[in-house]
Design goal:
The protein is an alpha+beta fold. It folds into 2 domains: 99 residues, Immunoglobulin-like (Sandwich); 148 residues, Roll (C8orf32 fold), CATH 3.10.620.30. The protein contains 4 helices and 15 strands. Strand 3 and strand 4 form a beta hairpin. The longest helix is centred in the middle third of the chain and has 15 residues. It is globular and about 60 Å long.
């Protein structure tokens, strides 16, 4: 049996003056087993919800009046699942999965790194190959908060040998694809302290991991060198981070600063 988890995600944007004509998309609603979910926007704005091309729930809104700050508060309760241990599966057919095999700006790797991925996967079944590539990534890239930004590419993270979960996911996705395994980038939340008491709020974080195709989509967390389980809450999937940002928008006005707080509470 999995967990029941409450996630609170608050993003506050403060502007250096008055902002106008703000148009926004929010991807903060969990993808599966959602018991309840709401998104509150301040200044108050009408919201509408739709499913994007990749199957992610998107909440969109516009703020037309002048404002000096913008706050988005998302609160969800979900049921998570225990880790799935992969069984034997045939190598997948390719044509209908072509979107998950192509390079993107963030996941592209050098020819040398592509050959490394292929060599590590050679002779292995899909599960063994995916785990081997995750080990290569985790063994090379040291997790260092703040060492990279949202525009950092997989190759840049590899070259500098450090990054965050986003970089490790991009790098793993890029190498899996080079090895012939369809792969997708997954974003969501991670409960960082499974030993916490039931009902104890814990400072959580947005997190990124991967899924690879081997007759079905199977997840791996290269940052933590583990299978994905009860502590993970899926929100969005895409080719890379550009398909799944929690907040994406444009506005007219001065510069801004963003503050993000994530709280995760195990309820059961």
């Amino acid at each position: 049996m999995g967990w029941r988890v409450k996630v609170g995600h608050v993003t506050r944007v403060d502007y250096d003056g008055e902002a106008h004509s703000s148009y926004n998309e929010v991807r903060m609603t969990p993808a599966h087993n959602v018991l309840s979910s709401r998104i509150v926007v301040r200044p108050v704005a009408a919201t509408y919800t739709y499913e994007d091309y990749w199957g992610t729930t998107v909440t969109a809104f516009d703020v037309s009046q002048p404002h000096r700050s913008l706050t988005i508060e998302a609160t969800s309760r979900v049921e998570t699942s225990p880790p799935r241990r992969p069984g034997a599966a045939p190598r997948p057919p390719g044509p209908e999965l072509g979107e998950w095999l192509g390079r993107t700006t963030r996941t592209a790797v050098s020819g040398e790194l592509a050959e490394l991925a292929r060599s590590r996967a050679r002779g292995l079944d899909p599960h063994e190959a995916a785990e081997a590539i995750c080990e290569v990534v985790a063994g090379r890239v040291v997790y260092v908060p703040g060492s990279t930004g949202v525009q950092t590419s997989a190759q840049e993270a590899w070259d500098q040998g450090q990054g965050v979960c986003q970089d490790m996911a991009h790098l793993t996705v890029g190498m899996l694809r080079e090895a012939g395994l369809p792969a997708r980038y997954v974003s969501g939340y991670l409960h960082p302290r499974p030993s916490a008491e039931i009902g104890e709020p814990v400072d959580g974080q947005s997190h990124a991991w991967v899924e690879y195709w081997a007759g079905e989509w199977l997840p791996l967390d290269p940052t933590n060198r583990t299978f994905v389980g009860e502590a993970h809450v899926v929100v969005a999937r895409g080719r890379d981070y550009s398909d799944v940002p929690p907040l994406k928008g444009v506005y007219q006005g001065p510069g801004s600063r963003q503050e993000i707080t994530v709280t995760v509470t195990r309820l059961r």
